[in-house]
Amino acid sequence: MSFKSLVSAVTIVIVGYYWMTYVKRGPVYESDKKLNGKTVLITGGNAGIGKATAMDLAKRGARVVIASRNLKKSNKVKDEIIKESGNHEIRTMQVDLSDYDSVRQFAKEFDESEKYLDYFVNNAGIVLDGMTKYGMNRLYVVDYFGPFLLTNLLLDKMKKQSAERPVRIINLTSEGYKFAEVYESSMRKDPQGWFEIFFVYWETNLVNIQFIYNLNKELKDYDITTYSVNPGTLIHTEAVEELDFNTKVLMFIPQLLIMRDVYYGYQTSLYTLLDDSVTAHSGGFFTGCSHEKLWPHATNESAWELLKKKSLEVTGLSSI
Ligand SMILES: NC(=O)c1ccc[n+]([C@@H]2O[C@H](COP(=O)([O-])OP(=O)(O)OC[C@H]3O[C@@H](n4cnc5c(N)ncnc54)[C@H](OP(=O)(O)O)[C@@H]3O)[C@@H](O)[C@H]2O)c1
């Protein structure tokens, strides 16, 4: 073998190693922490990252409540979780985050029927166009206003309980917030094409981060901590399988190069749910199983005041 071939071979091995370790895979959170006696509520727990998170928490002994629109799909996943984890404390409930009446009904039912809420994982999310019956952008409502309303409706329960047992609230978001700005106009407009859809999606990532950051301040007198979680840039979930042919073709190269298995996609959720060290950064942003300082536009106080006013007005709440 010539020297040149040897250098090429070594370079390929090194680049391949870094690509597999840091791009196609990612940090893995290891902990043998058990959650017996703890209750977890996870929206969108019947698919993708939510399902993987629900499975892991069930194996740790938690009572897991899966809240999604499609009860049939959730019940199938419930059976799978029970079979694989041996944990029978799995409950499915129906909620449509695009419908405030459904969110209110769900919150009431959850509050009345569940004794505790120790971990609340706002995981459900979509990257789609369409409008709600309220004439609002569906993506904005499912990814932000619905979870904002649900979190607020469950806050009293969490506050009461936090005197005895701590609560953690986790919101799934993405790094896309870095490129986003909040435009009131996009809340009421049906996005046209993938470009616009992604811009709205990143906007919802930003508002979720602003909410979680400021919710932490609002809850400073309670043993409730809050976390924004980026699961990774591109995670392989069922949503990818459901894409239309043209989008699948478009996604082929990124999928091959950077898409990670769902196993790597739930590690940061797990880290913020289980690790003792994260409470020091409550309100913050977590990615790759570590805390990352937020970009300044996400922590701007006057931007939050405007967003808070809008969020209360849209969801019909009087205060946080
Ligand atoms: N996958 C990625 O690459 C990636 C990257 C960054 C951030 N994220 C974020 O991570 C979270 C999970 O993503 P994922 O890829 O795992 O999602 P997914 O596989 O597409 O699953 C979405 C979940 O949301 C639920 N859902 C959708 N619309 C709903 C509604 N109106 N009301 C209630 N539940 C609803 C779905 O259940 P039903 O169909 O039963 O409603 C499903 O369980 C999302 O917040 C996403 O924005 C994902």
Architecture overview:
There is one protein chain. The protein is of the alpha/beta class. The protein has one domain (32-231, 266-315): 3-Layer(aba) Sandwich (Rossmann fold). The chain contains eleven helices and ten strands. An eight-stranded mixed beta sheet has the order 3-2-1-4-5-6-9-10, with helices on both faces. Strands 7-8 form a two-stranded parallel sheet. It starts with a helix and ends in a 5-residue tail after the last helix. 42% of the residues are buried. Bound molecules: NADP nicotinamide-adenine-dinucleotide phosphate. NADP nicotinamide-adenine-dinucleotide phosphate binds at residues 43-44, 46-50, 68-70, 73, 95-98, 123-126, 142, 172, 174, 231, 234-235, 237-239.
In short:
The chain crosses the membrane at residues 6-23. 49% of the residues lie in helices and 13% in strands.
Broad CATH class:
Alpha Beta
Report the structural category: alpha/beta
Q: Could you give the order of strands across the largest sheet?
A: 3-2-1-4-5-6-9-10
What's the domain count?
A: 1
CATH level-four homologous superfamily name? NAD(P)-binding Rossmann-like Domain
Ligand inventory reads: NADP nicotinamide-adenine-dinucleotide phosphate
Q: Architecture, CATH level 2?
A: 3-Layer(aba) Sandwich
Mean pLDDT: 95
Please report the number of helical segments: 11
Helix content bin? 40-55%
| Shape assignment | globular
- The parts where pLDDT drops under 50 for at least 5 residues are none
Number of E-type strands: 10
Biggest sheet record: 8 strands, mixed
Q: Topology as H/E string? A: HEHEHEHEHEHEEHHEHHEEH
Write the CATH fold name. Answer: Rossmann fold
